[in-house]
Amino acid sequence: xxxxxxxxxxxxxxxxxxxxxxxxxxxxxxxxxxxxxxxxxxxxxxxxxxxxxxxxxxxxxxxxxxxxxxxxxxxxxxxxxxxxxxxxxxxxxxxxxxxxxxxxxxxxxxxxxxxxxxxxxxxxxxxxxxxxxxxxxxxxxxxxxxxxxxxxxxxxxxxxxxxxxxxxxxxxxxxxxxxxxxxxxxxxxxxxxxxxxxxxxxxxxxxxxxxxxxxxxxxxxxxxxxxxxxxxxxxxxxxxxxxxxxxxxxxxxxxxxxxxxxxxxxxxxxxxxxxxxxxxxxxxxxxxxxxxxxxxxxxxxxxxxxxxxxxxxxxxxxxxxxxxxxxxxxxxxxxxxxxxxxxxxxxxxxxxxxx
Length: 355
Fold this sequence. Notes:
CATH topology of the largest domain: Rossmann fold
Distance between the termini: 46 Å
Helix content: 25-40%
Shape: elongated
Number of strands: 12
């Protein structure tokens, strides 16, 4: 199989460098992939550096980094926008040791007290972005809060819900409740399965859909969940459909989405669901409370509590109109506040604030 050519660019035309020094796909990597084309459509002149990114993005070569000593036309410096510790440190070396004219920006998604090493790295940044207010509260310095946005064209409601369900092999006569993401304890997949085992027998019109995969060390966890489903006699109503690249199509087939995470840095799945016109029942972790309007676009419930999840979900299973009404409100909320264009513009304003 022939690999597509990578779009290498001349550093002379680059104003912002987005390093990505982690090969495995992660939420940070996904953010870079989505943001860079939008940023460049806004003339921010961003190029990526590192592995694990698609070839169509503008790439800098490591061997061309020496060219960064020459300032870009009309500017005194370039921006090095790091999102991990392993990307902050090289930026510091380039700026402070090699004296390359750079300003360092760090985006933090962490919601825990930082180690001394991380605090030191963050202290060397010229400015810091936090992905939500909760994240900002763990930073021991000023930051600019910029909530993530998503592609509202990719994630959008189905024009024909019955057709959307049929295209995925789902019964269009049934209602569907989904839980998407990695299958593991941290993500609360077991809470979703146990809630469905308790609620579905009383709600025969509903089917649960679990989309995502378990990495090798979590396969036993997934196998145990499947065994619980079989023991409950619900194999035809709690579906494990695996990992899908067209996950936007699966959101369009849902009537309700559940985000049962026990821990989350930010969490994009509620945004993706709401942009698809689907209300969300979510645990109070990550940025979820800053994304969901409780009782308006979904419901916030207690982290890790099966009873709380069941109570939060039950009202939607019993009321089709509630799902539709809150789904419509969620869509309007997304379009007004959470486009990826808004996020890219806000990041551009941070770059400009550095001079």
